[in-house]
Amino acid sequence: MASQLTLSIVTPERELVRVQADEVELPGTEGYFGVLPGHTPLLAALTVGRLTYRVGQERHVLAIATGLAEVLPDQVTVLSQIAELPEDIDVGRAEEARKRAQARLGSKGDDLDYERARNALDKAILRLQVASRARAR
């Protein structure tokens, strides 16, 4: 059994992360799930959430939104539409996006696409949480 996993996080633009990790936690559509070396192979749909991974005693966190994860006993490959490292998140822009989404959800217009507005709010809140968590270290 492998002692570490090769974690690869890929967006349409680039490979964001390639690292040897001891543990990975992913936001699946059915809830968060953890992966350790030797995990049973699976393919999982991902939703808006925090992806965390541990290397030794150090934990790392990213914001991701929608995608797929392929889990093999010694490898986790994440294909995500959006993935952001904490240092790449523009906190001011995320705060503005949160305010816009909340305003949209607060309006009672017939043309409101509730699912889209709720998704935008979830992404903005996630970005703010990931950025603030990284700055708190």
Short characterization:
By secondary structure, the protein is an alpha+beta fold. Helix content is 28%, strand content 45%.
Q: If you compute it from the alpha carbons, what radius of gyration comes out, rounded to the nearest whole angstrom? A: 16 Å
Name the assembly state.
single chain
Q: Give the amount of beta strand, in percent.
A: 35-45%
Main sheet: strands, sense, barrel? 8 strands, mixed
**Which descriptor suits the 3D outline?**
elongated
CATH arch. level architecture of the largest domain: Sandwich
Unreliable spans? none
How do the helices and strands follow one another from N- to C-terminus?
Answer: EEEEEEEEHH
List the helices and strands and how they pair.
Elements: E1 5-10, E2 15-21, E3 23-28, E4 31-35, E5 42-46, E6 49-55, E7 58-72, E8 75-84, H1 91-106, H2 114-135
Parallel strand pairs: 1-8
Antiparallel strand pairs: 1-2, 3-4, 3-6, 5-7, 6-7, 7-8
Helix pairs in contact: 1-2
GO molecular function: ATP binding; proton-transporting ATP synthase activity, rotational mechanism
Family: Belongs to the ATPase epsilon chain family.
Pfam families: ATP-synt_DE, ATP-synt_DE_N
